[in-house]
Specification:
This protein has 268 residues and is α/β, with parallel strands linked by helices. Helices cover 40% and strands 15% of the residues. An 8-stranded mixed beta sheet has the order 3-2-1-4-5-6-7-8, sandwiched between helices. Helix 1 packs parallel to helix 2, helix 1 crosses helix 7 and helix 4 (99-126) runs parallel beside helix 5.
C-alpha cells in the first residue's frame, strides 16, 4: 500500500520533465493520475506508463478547466493537484518581448495556476481535503535577469501560494510551491545546456523535484516556497519581515491577520 493509495491526482504539464517524473512517483505511491498536457501523444504515453488517464488541454484557458474536472471525477474525484505546466520567453531584453510571448507565458505560468486552483479547490474540499502544489522556480524568490518576464510569473506563483495558505487551511487543503534551480528538462535548450556542461554546472534531476512535490502533498505545512537544489534537502525559503509603520498606534487600526504572519510559512 502506497502513501497515496486510493487518491486521485491531477498533474498539468504531465507529459514531460518534472510533470512526468511526478506523475510516475505519485502513481508509484498508489494514486490514480490524470495527465494533462497540450501534447496529445506524449500525454497518452505518460498516462499509459503510470496506468492513469490523459487529457489534452490548454491550462491557460479558463473554459478548459471544466473538462479537466470532469475527467478527474471519472477517476473518482480530486484529492491532489500538481499545477506544473510552464513555459519561458528565453528573452532577457524586455524591449524585445512580443505581445504574443508575454500573453503566452502569463497565461500558462500564472493563469494556469490560478484557474486550476479555482476549479479544483471545491473538488478537493468535497473529498475532505488534500493538497495542491504549484511549480514556481528559484526565479520565484530571487532576481533572474536572464528572463525577467519568466521571473515575474514565478514570483506571482509564490505570492499566490503564500497568500492562499491560511484560507485553504480552513478546508483542510495545503498549497505550496516548489522552487527548483535549473532542472534537466526540455526547457533547457541545447545552447544553454552546452554552456552549463562546459562550466560544470549540475542540473537537477526531475525526479528530485518530484520527491519535493510528494513531500509537500504528504506534509502539513502550507503557504511555503520549497527550494530544491542539487545535493540539498528540499528547504522552505525563509522570507524576511517587511518594515512596519512608524506612526504610533497605526498597527492597531489594521484588522488582525492582514499584514502579520499567519503561521503559514508566509514569513521566516
Amino acid at each position: 500500500m502506497g502513501a497515496l493509495e486510493g487518491k486521485v491526482a491531477v498533474v498539468t504539464g504531465g507529459a514531460s520533465g518534472i510533470g512526468r517524473a511526478s506523475a510516475r512517483l505519485l502513481a508509484g505511491e498508489g494514486a490514480s493520475v490524470l495527465v494533462v498536457d497540450r501534447n496529445a501523444e506524449a500525454a497518452q504515453e505518460a498516462a499509459h506508463e503510470v496506468g492513469g488517464a490523459a487529457l489534452v488541454a490548454d491550462v491557460s484557458r479558463a473554459e478548459q478547466w471544466g473538462p479537466i474536472v470532469d475527467a478527474a471525477r471519472g477517476l473518482g474525484g480530486v484529492d491532489l493537484a500538481f499545477l506544473n505546466a510552464g513555459v519561458t520567453t528565453g528573452e532577457e531584453d524586455v524591449t524585445k518581448v512580443t505581445d504574443e510571448q508575454y500573453r503566452r507565458i502569463v497565461g500558462v505560468n500564472v493563469d494556469g495556476v490560478v484557474f486550476g486552483t479555482r476549479a479544483l479547490v471545491p473538488e478537493i474540499a468535497a473529498h475532505g481535503g488534500g493538497a495542491i502544489v504549484a511549480t514556481s522556480s528559484l526565479a520565484g524568490v530571487i532576481a533572474f535577469p536572464g528572463d525577467p518576464i519568466y521571473t515575474l510569473t514565478k514570483h506571482a506563483v509564490v505570492g499566490f501560494v503564500r497568500s492562499l495558505g491560511p484560507r485553504l487551511a480552513q478546508d483542510d487543503i495545503t498549497i505550496n510551491a516548489v522552487c527548483p534551480g535549473l532542472v534537466d528538462t526540455p526547457l533547457i535548450d541545447g545552447e544553454i545546456r552546452d554552456v552549463l556542461a562546459d562550466a560544470g554546472f549540475p542540473l537537477i534531476a526531475p525526479e528530485a523535484v518530484a520527491e519535493a512535490v510528494l513531500g509537500c502533498m504528504l506534509g502539513d505545512a502550507t503557504g511555503q516556497a520549497i527550494v530544491v537544489q542539487v545535493g540539498r534537502e528540499p528547504t522552505a525559503y525563509r522570507f524576511g519581515r517587511p518594515p512596519g509603520p512608524r506612526e504610533p498606534g497605526a498597527a492597531g487600526k489594521i484588522p488582525p491577520g492582514w499584514l502579520a504572519d499567519q503561521g503559514s510559512g508566509a514569513a521566516g
